[in-house]
Amino acid sequence: MPVYLTPNAIAAINSGDANSKPLVQVLEIKLIGNSQDRYRLLLSDSVSTQHAMLATQLNDRVKSGRVQKGSIVQLIDYICSTVQNRKIIVVLNMETIIPDCEIIGNPKLLMQSDSTSQKSSSANKPEQPAIPDNRHLATTSCSNSAPKPGNKMPSFRPTVQPPYRPPPNYKNHGPIAKNDAPARIIPISALNPYQGRWAIKARVTAKGDLRRYNNAKGDGKVFSFDLLDSDGGEIRVTCFNAVVDRFYDAIEVGKVYLISKGNLKPAQKNFNHLKNEWEIFLESSSTVELCPDEDGSIPKQQFSFKPINEIESSENNSIIDVIGIVESVNPSVPILRKNGMETQRRILNLKDGSNRSVELTLWGELCNKQGRELQQMVESGVFPVLAVKAAKVNNFSGKSIGTISATQLFINPDCPEAYGLRDWFDRGGKNTASQSISRDIMPGCPRNEVRKTVSQIKDEGLGRADKPDWVTVKATVSFIKTDNFCYTACPLMIGDRQCSKKVTRSGNARWQCDRCTQEFEECDYRYLLQAQVQDHTGLTWVTAFQESGEEILGCSAKELYLLKYEEQDDVRFGEVIRRSLFSEYLFRLKIKEEMYGEEQRVKITVVKAEKLNYSAESRFLLDLISRITC
Amino acid sequence: MDTSNPAVLVNGELLRMYVGRKVRTVIQVLQSNGGITTGKSTDEHQLVIKGSPPPFPLTNFVEVIGVADSNQSICAERWTNFGNTFDTFSYNQLCQLANGEYKSLFL
């Protein structure tokens, strides 16, 4: 069937037109991107061509063959963006007019630079007015489409062809007025970095804590929240520094907001588990408006629950939703995190109709609020339904799940899955034994602990990989280096943590911290202890900082500093050191190879030192022996 | 170390296998008067320890080395205080290992 393509459509789009709904032909389809499928099309108006990206919600059209090489399509929603100095059309919606057609005209790749595109478009249609008006120009534009001589002349013009107005030549007419009309609301799934103006209407399903960080650029703060819209699209929004102050208090979980003018960046998949390849970064120009009159078309929360028996085969670190009956809740215990901060941990057991149960580890604040509530319910004989949004699967012992910062807990939620589960439990599920997919905790040994001997550190080349190795070693302190056992530290608080950076004496005998850029009369003293530890296999140097240093020496670095340098009591100093030798400890070690000048050296840091608990250690060894037997 | 007359690690249950032999065990002291001390073994059997206790006061847990007199009594030769807290579970497991699969490792 002969057909006309919209003349000069490519030039018009390149100049900013987004309303003419042109008819174009697809010359090429290419799959690009690696994280998620994305199609790039080469579109032709029979004279010029231009690359276009297909919004992912249109991927189906390509996959199902409704859009293929040669298809004549009408662009319905589209914009033109400049990406890395190249113009690209982003197609948000389109219709296939003719699924398969021979190549029309003799299209050439349009020149990329702005001026040439302007030139070529005006050269092609000199008789067209440069100033936009609303006249129907169907006839003129039709005659404009005269292809190069010798080309097959299309002889049919489809009725769907919209009127086309040539683009105004903005460059020659001074600054143009900004389009201040509110951006159209689009589905979250249609968001992409190639469109400038957009708005989304979505419900906040989760709000992260305000986090502070310190890196090479200085101190900063960040927070994120997750959005869900009425089409089920979800995306994370992140704010930094000054933008945090603007929006942190305004954002409330459960409320619906209109959000526009943000930056789209690829989602950080290691922190962001949402089903979206993009993440929104809000800027100072972004707007976030509360929608007070929302109608409930956006669900409060979107779950995709996984039965517990399927968690068994889930990949490590995958993020899942799960719902189950809480069978038991352990008390909350303090745990030292890898960064030296203390946090809370609470383990509970969930079971469901798949006749499996799983251990859920709550971390941090969740242990207190909901953890305590769950414990009280279970202790009083009520077994609540717990829906867990975004928990992480881990392999530590069998398969278990743990909370992450984005995790949300819903006790006895109002959803059909919860009622189904309750019904199952009350009708007999309560009395059925379910098999745990999480192995029982080894006695006297925290889960995920890797026990090594001193010689294994070297023999197995620990610390040589990209990430540090974390191991536990049972060893005896055999030597402590007594000079430079501590350093002068900044006593100021940054948020809820002490700065602790090394401070130096400034000219006026006061102490000065470069990070805090402040001076003070007295500094703090913190351990930087070099010690040798040994077990039955060998000996190694380790470095212990503040808390582990105190555990080993039994007094603070300041006390010991004053004893040695102020009181100069070498006898008592020697006693303190000797008293600390030849005690057995469980050392939690961080092992990492680092560069010291030209030399690679494996650095072993004591993250935690614990006096050996012989009873717990005996049980640990008995457990090991029983494993040898079987 | 004198290995000529080793003492077998036992709990209450294992004691019966070594009547007339030298044994060692840990008990929780229940009562002690004169030459008779009664105690609880790590596997919850009641044992009688004959012989005069040492001149120092006994702690809650005591190790006794002596000759097995009967199924449930030992003539004590040596007493050692093991303190007021003791992991009876681990000790009991040890006794079982020392008389089971890993017997060859023990004297």
Automatic annotation (TrEMBL), chain A:
Location of the region described as Disordered in the Swiss-Prot/TrEMBL record:
112-164
Q: Where is the OB domain?
A: 200-280
Replication factor A C-terminal domain residues are 470-621
Indicate where this protein is primarily found. nucleus
The Replication factor-A protein 1 N-terminal domain extends over 5-97
Q: Where is the Replication protein A OB domain?
A: 308-412
Which SUPFAM superfamilies does the record match to this protein? Nucleic acid-binding proteins
Q: Which Gene3D superfamilies match?
A: Nucleic acid-binding proteins
Record field: compositional bias (Low complexity): 113-122
**GO molecular function terms listed in the Swiss-Prot or TrEMBL record:** damaged DNA binding; single-stranded telomeric DNA binding; zinc ion binding
Biased composition regions of type Polar residues, renumbered to the chain? 137-146
UniProt-listed InterPro entries: Euk_RPA1_DBD_C (IPR047192), NA-bd_OB-fold (IPR012340), NA-bd_OB_tRNA (IPR004365), Rep_factor-A_C (IPR013955), Rep_factor-A_N (IPR007199), REPA_OB_2 (IPR031657), Rfa1 (IPR004591)
Q: Where found, per UniProt?
A: Nucleus
GO CC: one term?
DNA replication factor A complex
One GO BP annotation of this record: male meiotic nuclear division
Q: Which UniProt keywords apply?
A: DNA damage, DNA recombination, DNA repair, DNA replication, DNA-binding, Metal-binding, Nucleus, Zinc, Zinc-finger
Q: Subunit info? A: Heterotrimer of RPA1, RPA2 and RPA3 (canonical replication protein A complex).
Question: Member of which family?
Answer: Belongs to the replication factor A protein 1 family.
PANTHER family per UniProt: REPLICATION FACTOR A 1, RFA1 (PTHR23273), REPLICATION PROTEIN A 70 KDA DNA-BINDING SUBUNIT A (PTHR23273:SF47)
- Report the protein's function: Component of the replication protein A complex (RPA) required for DNA recombination, repair and replication. The activity of RPA is mediated by single-stranded DNA binding and protein interactions. Probably involved in repair of double-strand DNA breaks (DSBs) induced by genotoxic stresses.
Q: What is this protein called?
A: Replication protein A subunit
Q: What is the lineage of its organism?
A: Eukaryota, Viridiplantae, Streptophyta, Embryophyta, Tracheophyta
TrEMBL record, chain B:
Question: Quick one: where is this thing mainly located?
Answer: nucleus
Keyword flag Ribonucleoprotein: no
Q: Which UniProt keywords apply?
A: Nucleus
Q: Which GO terms describe its molecular function?
A: DNA binding
Which is a GO BP term held by this UniProt record?
A: DNA repair
Q: Write out the GO cellular component annotations.
A: nuclear lumen
- InterPro entries linked: NA-bd_OB-fold, Rfa2
| Subcellular locations according to the entry | Nucleus
Family membership? Belongs to the replication factor A protein 3 family.
Know the name of this protein? Replication protein A 14 kDa subunit B-like
Source organism of the structure: Nelumbo nucifera
